[in-house]
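Figure S4 source data
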Amino acid sequence: MNDKLQLSEEMSAGTARLRTDVLGSSPREHVLDDMSFLNYRLADVRIEPAVSLPEPDIVWQQDGETSIGYDGRRMTLTGPWPAGPLQKVIVALLALRMEAAGLHPFHASAVRYSGRTVLFLGGESNHGKSMGQIEACRRGALLVSTETTVIDEAGYAVVGSKQPFIAKRTTGTERADKEAPDRGVQKFFGTMPAWEVYPDPSPVDLVVVPAIDGNFDPAVAEMIPFERQFQTFYSVQNYFLLNEILAPGFAMPLIDTGELRKARAAFVARFCARPYYFARAATPQVLLDLVDKVL
């Protein structure tokens, strides 16, 4: 096995940093050739011009039999891993580093609507956060985020992804059960509306957990503390891939701990002090009518 260092690369998301070292017989210019998935999932991921971290968070030995392991701090990969699983590993570990820096990625979209920041939370069902965001923007809202909203300890939406959908799944992560990402837009809107971006950090004023289904009668209800925290914890846990298969026969190693979960639950409890509503609707248009009622 060739242990020659081919690449040492550092990525950042806000103040969080992640270093990857690539070993083996094959030279590489970058760990990933395409950063679009990372920006879709974590809002704003950048390759730093120089490595500053003293030790790697990920070590990838390209030669040898395929394997993956985690020792509580460092992920070690061996073998010819395709880009899809590599992306997922980087997202999970970078999300951990973000959390340690007080930045919490939420699986949620957000808009600046009627002078308030409204978060459409992708909770347990995850049916409506994108369509709700698009309909709000169609009504004149400014875009804060699409797939991911990064929220700080004070409850401010500080940055967010700007792509409404990921255009193509990378090799190794294809899914036959997922419809074309723009199919909902075609069904509900015909074409994608244009919108402007809200550029500044803002406190989240209202959280809406949407559920869109063509069979639903419209209903909106304020959520009790347990429901708020359950759905929010589900949303932030989404980034640690605890239930993910990276590749056939290889599960994502467990990167969470009891201590981290306790701290995460405490943050969720603080965040959930703001107004929360569950909104059920047949279409995004009806969903936003319900949001208008509670604003």
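Figure S5 source data
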Amino acid sequence: MEKEYYANVHSIESFGTVDGPGIRFVLFLQGCSLKCKYCHNRDTWPIKGGTPKSLDEIYNKIMNYKNYICPSGGVTVTGGEPLLQADFLIALFKRLKAENIHTCIDTSGMVAISKEIQELLNLTDLVLLDIKHINNEKCKELTGMGNSLELNFAKYLSDNNIQMWIRQVIVPGITDGEEDLKQLKEFIKSLKTVQKVELLPYHDMGKYKWKNLGDLYTLEDIPTATSKDIERAKKLLEIE
């Protein structure tokens, strides 16, 4: 008898267009071990705060949209931090691969490379890797954790021929320092499977979630990133 798998789900987006190639079925999982100061999904942090959903329920819902997401799109799992529920994703991705559905994970990579993570990545067509900060100490200040795990994660993807898009949130005065971006450029150049680099402009549209939860939003005085901020960062990173 097949084991029953359940995931703590935050929300679902049926027709996503910004989390991977093509039209995506986007599954937002609950739970995150980071404490990113700019997080716009603050309500995803507690892993028990979501809605339990079975593997069959989620798989059947995805299959309802298969004609829309295939062949150019697929399924993206994000969060929160989806790798906290890797056993569920292994079971889900095995079913999706049997249907030739493109699989994608949006992650910080802030996990150890366990056998479970290796098995999941073998079923993953694309990883959207969010580099929180290339500087270890600044990363710790921004997220509560240093960056050694995520940089090792990126190297693992590269060494094992797993395709990735690198993502960096541009937070004025925090992640856009000239030396930091030049260091990030060199790190990206060292990786063999980077298909794309995406710069995401910092916005504060999620700060109301912090306030609703009674938390202090510490970036209150940080300006949102402008198109000029993004263009400057692109030049320093030498990307189009």
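Residues 6-237 form a domain with the TIM Barrel fold (CATH 3.20.20.70). The chain has a mean pLDDT of 96.
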